[in-house]
Amino acid sequence: MRSLALLTIVSLLSVGALAQTPAANSTPPGNAETGKKLFVQYGCYQCHGYAAHGGAGPRLAPRPLTFAALSQYIRQPKGEMPPYTTKVLSEQQLADVYAFLRSVPEPPSVDSIPLLKSN
Ligand code: HEC
């Protein structure tokens, strides 16, 4: 009985620790619907695809990089991607884009597509 109580406390503590990771704290709230429109309006889709699954540019979703990394990259890209300064795309708009990226569902597993089943 005592070990069960201890287990409960330990799991509550770890949930608390997860909720306080820096990434979770530094992610500003955004609107995924608006972000989806911005993703098209600002041409991200031309290189990254409508569902951000990648094209000429890499796959961005699902499981996007952290907001901080996204923001840093967008403002000062290192490769062929054009930069998007805060004058072009505000922090709030970027937060909306990020909310959209986070809303993109996982693609179906290969096994759930009958045509692609190996046997
Ligand atoms: C002209 C094509 C193009 C457009 C438009 C474009 N990207 Fe990119 N993006 C790229 C390419 C190519 C890369 C790969 C690295 C490089 O060459 O800069 C990249 C890399 C990235 C990365 C880094 C990915 C990683 O895993 O490191 C992010 C994030 C990103 N793009 C987001 C965006 C967003 C958001 C927009 C719209 C605001 C956008 N991109 C518009 C071509 C584009």
Describe this structure in words.
The chain is mainly α and 119 residues long. The protein has a domain at 30-103: Orthogonal Bundle (Cytochrome Bc1 Complex, Chain D, domain 2), CATH 1.10.760. Helices cover 50% and strands 0% of the residues. It contains 6 helices and no strands. It has helices at residues 2-19, 22-25, 32-41, 44-48, 67-75, 91-103. The longest helix has 18 residues, at 2-19. The N and C termini lie far apart (49 Å). 20% of the residues are buried. Mean pLDDT is 84; it is low at 9-23. Bound molecules: heme C (HEC). Heme C (HEC) binds next to α4 and α5.
Q: CATH fold name of one domain, please?
A: Cytochrome Bc1 Complex, Chain D, domain 2
- Backbone structural class: mainly alpha
CATH classification class of one domain: Mainly Alpha
| Mean residue pLDDT | 84
**Ligands:** heme C
Measured distance between first and last alpha carbons: 49 Å
How many strand segments? 0
Q: Give the ordered list of helices and strands.
A: HHHHHH
How large, in whole angstroms, is the Cα Rg?
Answer: 19 Å
Fourth CATH level, the homologous superfamily of one domain: Cytochrome c-like domain
Overall 3D form: globular
Q: Give the low-confidence spans.
A: 9-23
- Biggest pleated-sheet summary: none
CATH architecture heading of one domain? Orthogonal Bundle
What is the percent of helical residues? 40-55%
